[in-house]
Specification:
mainly alpha
Length: 269
């Protein structure tokens, strides 16, 4: 897997309906989407969720290739989870039994739906970062978590840290790729050998990467102090967040979809 396959944190500028939505609307919609995805039980409900995801991607005009490339890093986790569900899901319809390992029809369906759920979950959350700039994402998170200020939760600082972490993922990936290329030019080998040998080979990569990350963090802190940044107290925003009619319509649509999926899942569809 190449590092360029990791696209989490990237923002694709655009003028689509999804890009124009209020960031709070997209955050709430993603939460509703995740809840509905975990409510889905069988082919009908998963088909509804897939159609919703496909519609969202089509409306956003984000390249499908970028979304598929971004899901490559979690492919191993999805396959590993599918194998566990395949062999450890009890059922009455036994297909194959090898020593203590048993494959049932229920396990096959469970493994399939688990992979589909993980992939759809990743694609849906990636779509949020692809269509929302880090600044708007920070403002949306802070606005949604504003009630927590009453119990002295540092809402602005938490939102800022989450946004900065998300923003610097592509930068750190690019830095890692440069360090790996430099190490390969000096004869380093990151792909051959067993698991322990590969882990040892990563040490020359991790040390300069950590040094670079701390240096970037220090430069960012100095730049923020030079611009008189002192947290969210008394801070104004260039763009004020305001709900529009399309935001209410999207939220109502997602909520109705989640309720419908829940009802269909309850009757076994």
């Amino acid at each position: 897997m190449a590092l360029k396959d990791i696209t989490l944190g990237q923002y694709f500028p655009g003028n689509s309906l999804v890009h124009k939505l209020d960031p709070r609307t997209k955050l709430i919609a993603v939460v509703i989407y995740i809840v509905a995805l975990f409510l889905a039980k069988w082919f009908v409900t998963y088909a509804i969720m897939f159609c919703l995801l496909a519609l969202s991607i089509a409306v956003s005009k984000v390249p499908v290739r970028s979304i598929l490339r971004g899901m490559k890093p979690v492919l191993f986790i999805a396959i590993f989870t599918a194998i566990l569900n395949l062999f450890y899901t009890p059922g009455t319809h036994v297909l194959v039994k090898i020593w203590v390992l048993t494959i049932t029809m229920e396990g096959v369906f469970q493994a399939f739906f688990m992979v589909v759920r993980i992939m759809m979950l990743i694609a849906g959350t990636f779509l949020l970062t692809y269509t929302t700039s880090p600044i708007l994402l920070t403002d949306g998170l802070e606005s949604l978590m504003n009630p927590l200020k009453k119990i002295r939760v540092p809402v602005h600082e938490l939102s800022m840290m989450m946004s900065i972490a998300l923003r610097f993922i592509p930068t750190l990936i690019e830095e890692t790729d440069k360090i790996m290329s430099a190490q390969r030019a000096r004869g380093a080998d990151f792909e051959s050998g067993n698991l322990i040998q590969r882990a040892k080979a990563l040490i020359p990569l991790l040390v300069p990467l950590f040094i670079s990350a701390f240096r970037r963090a220090d430069e960012l802190a100095v730049a923020m102090e030079c611009r008189c940044y002192h947290g969210g107290e008394g801070r104004t925003r260039l763009r004020q967040l305001k709900y529009q009619a399309r935001d209410y319509m999207v939220l109502a649509f997602f909520l109705a979809m989640a309720v419908g999926v829940g009802v269909l899942a309850h009757i076994g569809l």
